[in-house]
Amino acid sequence: MGTEWGVDDAAEEVQTGPMIQATTIITTGTAGRGLTDITATIAEWLHETGIEEGLLTLLCRHTSASLLIQENAAREVRSDLVGWLDRIAPEGPHYAHDDEGPDDMPAHLKAMLTGVNLSIPVIGGRMALGTWQGIYLAEHRRAAHRREIALHLMGT
């Protein structure tokens, strides 16, 4: 016997047509270590593409910052996440790579743990995020930086 997967009876068949692609690179400033909400910027670009159904891929073009989908209502979640990452990858003299300062190697470790890319389904012209989800650029360095995120959307 096969496994029965829960199927949403309300699922709609998507009309397929010619595949369209759109790309851009967004730049955002950070205030230093912490999470910057970039959901609205991405949603605005998505709307401008006119693509209704597809897959959005995001790539942070840095090795000391990352991308997260996280809680967008309670600010404490974001500060708790930053605190946890600081405890799991603390600054200190125990790293061989310290050319750019004591926060650089821990930033690389945090980016490795959290990831630099995301894939998000697009349904009805909107990202299929949950009610309390937002897209965040996680800055793992102490100083403010300008960060680039590449966006690629394929769909119809």
What does this structure look like?
With 156 residues, the chain is of the alpha+beta class. The chain has a single domain (32-155), classed as YjbQ-like (Jelly Rolls), CATH 2.60.120.460. Helices cover 23% and strands 35% of the residues. The protein has helices spanning 39-49, 75-88, 104-114, and strands spanning 20-29, 34-37, 54-60, 65-71, 117-123, 126-127, 133-139, 146-155. It has a five-stranded antiparallel β-sheet, covered by helices on one side. The protein has a three-stranded antiparallel β-sheet with strand order 2-7-4. The model has no long low-confidence stretch (mean pLDDT 93).
- End-to-end Cα distance, whole Å, is 36 Å
Provide the structure class.
alpha+beta
CATH architecture: Sandwich
Give the overall average pLDDT: 93
Uncertain segments are none
Could you name the CATH topology?
Jelly Rolls
Shape summary: elongated
Count of strand segments: 8
The CATH superfamily title: YjbQ-like
Strand order of the largest sheet: 1-8-3-5-6
Count of folded domains:
1
The largest sheet is:
5 strands, antiparallel
The top level CATH class name: Mainly Beta
Helix proportion range: 10-25%
Q: Which radius of gyration do the C-alpha atoms yield?
A: 18 Å
User: What string gives the helices and strands in order?
Assistant: EEHEEHHEEEE
Number of distinct helices: 3
